[in-house]
């Protein structure tokens, strides 16, 4: 049975880069790794609707905090069996975003904190009702909003067909979301968390040494 490890953080925080580093480091140590990312835009109709709503389609759907959160949650619910199989067959399953992203962004949109009603609603929906697998570790890649925004802008310029959505372009929302993420990490919401300074180059080897070698 493998470990489920989630990387969380703002848009442009460097989650994919950290996942690449962790995968390489774990591979050097003989650990098998399965990776996935949420939302699954190319695999799930709920994620497709999310992407379209974030770019202004489907009327007022994008403005509905709970409506969008349900779509995000249904995307993950559809992946439960795949996640369970991956956990059974791999030493480490690395996820780019998971349930905490739904909690953080929705709470930020509603100007609530991690102790607010929305975060509890997400927990009841995704954890209690849908029964999503519990992470063994959640990693918060914490970066200043301006750094994350600069990286997101660079990605938009250099990656074909990559256009920032309404959430990514809202600096105030990103600022509030970062605060909720830090609160979730401090409270070890749902499972253990560790916080990594993402302003520079995170030390993948140190993360593996400290957290991922008991697989």
From TrEMBL:
Which reaction does this enzyme catalyse, per its entry? dTMP + ATP = dTDP + ADP
Q: Which GO terms describe its biological process?
A: dTDP biosynthetic process; dTTP biosynthetic process; dUDP biosynthetic process
Tell me which residues make up the Thymidylate kinase-like domain: 7-186
Coiled-coil spans are none
EC number of this enzyme = 2.7.4.9
Q: Name one GO molecular function term.
A: ATP binding
Name the enzyme group at the top EC level. Answer: transferase
Q: Which UniProt keywords apply?
A: ATP-binding, Kinase, Nucleotide biosynthesis, Nucleotide-binding, Transferase
**PANTHER family attached here?**
THYMIDYLATE KINASE, UMP-CMP KINASE 2, MITOCHONDRIAL
Family, according to the entry, reads as follows: Belongs to the thymidylate kinase family.
This molecule's function is given as:
Phosphorylation of dTMP to form dTDP in both de novo and salvage pathways of dTTP synthesis.
Q: What is this protein called?
A: Thymidylate kinase
Originating species: Saccharopolyspora rectivirgula
